[in-house]
Amino acid sequence: MSFERGLHCAVACRIVKRRSWMALPLFCLISTFGVVHHAVANESLQIVDARVPAADKEGGDLPLTMTIKNEADSADALLRVRCPVANFSERHIVDRGEGAPAMRSISNIPVPAKATLELKRDGYHVMLLQLRQALAPGETFKCAVVFQKAGTIETEVQVQK
Fold first, then answer.
1. Which residues pair with 145 in a beta bridge?
2. How far apart, in Å, are the Cα atoms of 94 and each of 10, 81, 116?
3. Which residues, other chains included, contact 31 with Cβ-Cβ below 8 Å and sequence gap of 6+?
4. How does strand 115-119 pair with strand 76-82?
5. From CA 6, how far away is CA 90, in angstroms rounded?
6. 59-113, pLDDT tens digit by residue?
7. Number of H helices and number of E strands within the chain?
8. Cα 60 from Cα 51, distance rounded (Å)
9. 89 closest CA partner among 61, 110, 58, 123
């Protein structure tokens, strides 16, 4: 939801005021509050230093690593990542149980309140699966990172050597 949608909703409330004097204005109020809450959540959560290693062919899988800074008073969770260079993505953690470390798929990555979380290969990270193209060092692309409370945040990803 954007600020413009909330503004259009407010205008619609005035236009249709006579027909549904209670339901539509109430809906508009709730929608506008949602827009403000979403904007505040995005300001308190930041993604920096998003990167992937270079890939010389399509079809492979790559780890997407980044730093997530959560300045909010409440914890959040990374739910999904959408990138145009991959068909799918999965959230992973490296399990260090008995034997060799192994990647395990998880439903979300918890982001603690008032903390910085480093997504890296040997801990929490996101795997980009079935690359659609080769990726050369120095290239960049955008990904949409979806959080439970902060919503969707667009971030630029750097391809490294």
1. 81, 153
2. 48, 18, 19
3. 1, 5, 6, 9
4. unpaired
5. 33
6. 999 999 999 999 999 999 999 999 999 999 999 999 887 878 889 999 999 999 9
7. 2, 10
8. 16
9. 61
